[in-house]
Automatic annotation (TrEMBL):
Gene: NTMT1
Subcellular location per the Swiss-Prot or TrEMBL entry: Nucleus
Coiled coil: none
InterPro entries, per the entry: MeTrfase_NTM1 (IPR008576), SAM-dependent_MTases_sf (IPR029063)
Name of the featured protein: protein N-terminal methyltransferase
Lineage: Eukaryota, Metazoa, Chordata, Craniata, Vertebrata
Origin species: Oreochromis niloticus (Nile tilapia)
SUPFAM superfamilies in alphabetical order: S-adenosyl-L-methionine-dependent methyltransferases
Keywords: Methyltransferase, Nucleus, S-adenosyl-L-methionine, Transferase
GO biological process: methylation
Length: 275
């Protein structure tokens, strides 16, 4: 992304300035498409519930982290109904202040409100069952995204997941000067995921978005990374625009459940495909 983000400091400060001018509402969080919130949440819930449970290899429901949380739209409707505790992190303090009232009584189960850009955020080691990253990776440079994913691995509990739900371009990197972000294509995202020590495994398509919006894609990516550790941990991340890059996409996650190793699985959503 070096040819796109020539001035890293301005890239981040311009994004902060943009979000400071956005109203702290659901419509504001979704760029004027507040009407798709229920469709988005329902698709995310169906996706996430496939991995949650009490059985062997299932992800726990103790604590989740909402990255780029805004006013807590995802926390309120997706994460708090599924987890005992949720932490929120966002770069805009006004959004986090609004979240404290927007979440209502369920806000009592919020553990922490972190006002911080993800490029600087260091999640607590071993705290989270699920780290949810939606519509925010475009606000990170390549190097910062790689580093953040690595830090997220360390923040997972056994069998934990990292879920990325975000936009994908048809080809290359598309800058958005309005909000100071970028939209990467599949190959670029896969490369960044690989550099973070992860590999893609599976994908699904998000259904029922309005026709005027671009196609939305959901994907699960598990990866294997072996360490001398005796428990398994699953890390979900990734993105696809309809075609898996290799045969790994058809493999069952069970293929990766190795004995006495540290097993990392990535899970991810792809959202908008720009042409």
């Amino acid at each position: 992304m070096g040819d796109i983000v020539e001035d890293e400091a301005s890239f981040y400060s311009n994004a902060q300035d943009y979000w400071k001018d956005i109203p702290p509402t659901v419509d504001g969080m979704l760029g004027g498409y507040g009407s798709i919130s229920s469709i988005d949440i329902n698709g995310s819930k169906a996706f996430l519930q496939k991995f949650l449970g009490d059985g062997e290899g299932k992800t726990g429901s103790g604590c989740a982290l909402d990255c780029g949380a805004g006013i807590g739209r995802i926390t309120k409707r997706l994460l708090l109904p599924l987890f005992k505790t949720v932490d929120l992190v966002d770069v805009t303090q006004e959004f986090l202040d609004k979240a404290k009232t927007y979440l209502g009584d369920d806000g009592k189960r919020v553990g922490n409100y972190f006002c911080c850009g993800l490029q600087d955020f260091v999640p607590e080691s071993g705290r989270y069952d699920v780290i949810w990253i939606q519509w925010v990776i475009g606000h990170l440079t390549d190097d910062h995204l790689i580093d953040f994913l690595r830090r997220c691995q360390k923040a997972l509990r056994p069998n934990g997941l990292i879920v990325i739900k975000d936009n994908v371009s048809y080809e290359g990197v598309i800058p958005d000067e309005e909000d100071s972000s970028v939209c990467r294509d599949l190959n670029i995202v896969c490369s960044l995921v690989s550099k973070a020590g992860l590999r893609i495994v599976h994908q699904e398509q998000q259904k029922n978005f309005p026709k005027e919006l671009y196609q939305r894609w959901v994907m699960i990516t598990p990866a294997i990374k072996c360490f001398c550790i005796t428990h398994k941990r699953h890390f979900l991340c990734g993105t696809f625009s309809g075609r898996p890059p290799d045969a790994a996409a058809s493999l069952s996650p069970e293929r990766f459940y190795l004995t006495d190793v540290f097993s990392v699985r990535i899970c991810c959503f792809y959202i908008t495909e720009y042409f």
